[in-house]
From TrEMBL:
<dbReference type="GO" id="GO:0004582">
    <property type="term" value="F:dolichyl-phosphate beta-D-mannosyltransferase activity"/>
</dbReference>
<protein>
    <recommendedName>
        <fullName>dolichyl-phosphate beta-D-mannosyltransferase</fullName>
        <ecNumber>2.4.1.83</ecNumber>
    </recommendedName>
</protein>
<dbReference type="InterPro" id="IPR029044">
    <property type="entry name" value="Nucleotide-diphossugar_trans"/>
</dbReference>
<dbReference type="GO" id="GO:0009247">
    <property type="term" value="P:glycolipid biosynthetic process"/>
</dbReference>
<keyword id="KW-0808">Transferase</keyword>
<feature type="domain" description="Glycosyltransferase 2-like">
    <location>
        <begin position="10"/>
        <end position="175"/>
    </location>
</feature>
<dbReference type="GO" id="GO:0016020">
    <property type="term" value="C:membrane"/>
</dbReference>
<dbReference type="Pfam" id="PF00535">
    <property type="entry name" value="Glycos_transf_2"/>
</dbReference>
<keyword id="KW-0328">Glycosyltransferase</keyword>
<dbReference type="InterPro" id="IPR001173">
    <property type="entry name" value="Glyco_trans_2-like"/>
</dbReference>
<comment type="similarity">
    <text>Belongs to the glycosyltransferase 2 family.</text>
</comment>
<dbReference type="InterPro" id="IPR039528">
    <property type="entry name" value="DPM1-like"/>
</dbReference>
Length: 267
């Protein structure tokens, strides 16, 4: 009997990842030989795109999508999602090129999809999850930011900013990919939030996140301010809608009870 994960595409965005590319793709191929890989390269000046083409020419399960210029991680994933949806993949995964997401743990995400989950997030902040080789300040910033996001938006997800994910195709088909925020890395939070609001089955599995050893992080400090400002706006809007809905429900119940009592008195 076939499973959703039998048709899986792993999307790996790249920008100047020439040294990391053969390492991450070989690990994916060794640990998950049945999946296909899509490298989405943003015109890397170090030759990453050309190297990906050479590798794909020798591997039928590896594909390359070239984008013009450095369009950002959100744009790269959206391009990758669309590429995969056009080719009828049933499960589409996000994975970093720098080795921070262990391909050897991909099966943990895919097993949950096969068990019925719609979106599975590889989490650093649930029991069993961990972060390796991060400075204490960065860990505190990430952990604190995710705690704030969880409190602001609800939903019970501990690692809303995580980028190791597996989606069923129907989730991505439901989302308006053109309407995602491009403020910092906040699109990861926004996607998870929208999926939760649509009542899809969202689960977390523990993963080990390891800081890159080769190359430089694409993250800068501005993402924290920009991202949390966006989350605050969403949180206020979300809570306002909840209060409005609560008021409408309780008001309706009160009207019903008053009407019932009036009928009782009349009788």
């Amino acid at each position: 009997m076939s499973k959703p994960s039998d048709s899986t595409l792993v999307i790996i965005p790249t920008y100047n990842e020439l040294e990391n590319l053969p390492l991450i793709t070989s690990r994916v191929r060794k640990s998950n030989p049945e999946v296909d890989i899509l490298i989405v390269d943003d015109n890397s000046p170090d030759g990453t795109g050309e190297a990906a083409d050479a590798m794909a020419a020798k591997d039928d399960h590896m594909h390359v999508l070239h984008r013009e210029g450095k369009g950002g991680l959100c744009g790269a994933y959206i391009a990758g999602f669309r590429w995969g949806l056009d080719r009828d993949y049933q499960v589409l995964c996000e994975m970093d090129a720098d080795g921070s997401h262990a391909p050897e743990q991909l099966h943990l995400l895919l097993e949950q999809v096969d068990d019925g989950a719609d979106l599975v997030i590889g989490s650093r902040y649930i029991p069993g999850g961990e972060v390796v080789n991060w400075p204490k300040q960065r860990w505190v910033l990430s952990k604190g930011g995710n705690l704030y996001i969880s409190l602001a938006l609800g939903g019970g997800i501990k690692d809303m900013t995580a980028g190791y994910r597996a989606f069923r195709r129907n989730v991505l088909e439901h989302l308006d990919l053109d309407d995602l925020s491009n403020a910092g890395y906040i699109f990861q939070v926004e996607i998870a939030f929208r999926v939760l609001q649509a009542d899809f089955d969202v689960r977390e599995v523990p993963i080990t996140f390891t800081e890159r050893e080769i190359g430089e992080s694409k993250l800068d400090g501005s993402f924290v301010k920009d991202s949390l400002a966006e989350v605050t706006k969403w949180g206020v809007k979300h809570r306002t809608q909840q209060i409005k809905h609560f008021a409408e429900v309780t008001g309706g119940l009160a009207k019903h009870e008053i009407s019932r009592l009036r009928r009782r008195w009349i009788i």
